[in-house]
Write a structure and sequence with these properties.
The chain is mostly helical. 77% of the residues lie in helices and 0% in strands. It contains two helices and no strands. It has helices at 8-24, 31-67.
């Protein structure tokens, strides 16, 4: 059979070099931006949760009064 060359070590090194090069291209957001976006996501999540809870109560009350379960 033919001899094969194991170049797995070279692939790993080039992979990590490429990974390091890509990470250096990332523009990380400032602390203020992260805080503002976190607050926006949290407030939207709370608002959506409240809307879903209110709709659940209204639909549950409506179905129970229509079906006479109370």
């Amino acid at each position: 059979m033919g001899d094969t060359v194991n170049n797995e070590g070279a692939r790993k090194k080039s992979f990590f070099r490429g990974l390091k090069a890509e990470f250096s291209k990332i523009i990380w957001p400032s602390k203020e931006t992260v805080m503002k976006q976190t607050a926006a996501v949290m407030s939207a999540s709370v608002a959506l949760g409240l809307i879903i809870a209110i709709l659940d109560l209204v639909i549950g009350f409506g179905l129970s009064s229509i079906l006479g379960l109370r």
